């Protein structure tokens, strides 16, 4: 159930409704919007008695939600969620660039890449310390040592650190060293990990599963929100199809499809979406033109020597060039008042 408050409801009336919901043994999710505040109710086994809440002061209406997802929907929040880490944002008018190597390999490598990422004007540095590799014999990441290097990068460059958690203990560590938790494609339906991320104070970058439908992906986000973490960014990184010319098939239609049902921001990952260096720039431009809130791009100071995903890594020069291009496209879109972004 969704309780929609009147536009002029006071914060006291909102608190009062939330407390009444909690008093009934249910969970209240208070989501303020530009026009009005909505309060999502979860934790019920059966039908909720609307009469218990709809006559409370400040309530405009109680809406029964029959869909499996509630909190990610536009029903609860009409305007896009803006994810904030300090003064860096994802989902605002600013194009978010999240960039770095697939894996942190050494302090020298991380710093060389961070230097270029910082110079490009990006706000987010992304590097893996715990890597979900297909082969158990492939480089698995530096672990906590990698996180310590990332924390040094944050200190030196003021970049926000995005890094992947493979399990719940990984979330504990990222809370110590990082700024944003990445949940990778292979973990998109690791429900205990989703729940743990939902209890974290850090925002979450949720990648689309290897062959996940839109609904499965959004329900994974709903798992996180149901625990009380509303700061989620969706990341389209391609899905498996019969195509042989790319590592994955990037689904740009996911951008308007997400927008039509959800308030969550969405970024495009042209690196894993293609798996090929020469395809990354054009797919990055296409993603921004299609209205993505940002990009996740892998870049390396020596791509040919990268321990992970070397075929898709951009050189630092290629990376800086593509950032210039996508910024120009984004600026153009913003200046076209007839175009609604995404
Ligand atoms: C990654 O971001 O390096 C990664 C492993 O991506 P994905 O989970 O999308 O495969
Ligand atoms: Mn990678």
Characterise this structure.
- The structure is a single chain.
- The mean pLDDT is 96.
- The relative contact order is 0.12.
- Helices cover 35% and strands 18% of the residues.
- The two termini are 28 Å apart.
- The chain contains eleven helices and 14 strands.
- It is an alpha/beta fold.
- The chain folds into two domains: 2-63, Alpha-Beta Plaits (2-Layer Sandwich), CATH 3.30.70.1140; 83-341, Aldolase class I (TIM Barrel, Alpha-Beta Barrel).
- The strands form three sheets. It has an eight-stranded parallel beta barrel with strand order 7-8-9-10-11-12-13-14, surrounded by seven helices.
- The protein is globular and about 65 Å long.
- It binds phosphoenolpyruvate (PEP) and manganese (II) ion.
- Phosphoenolpyruvate binds next to loops.
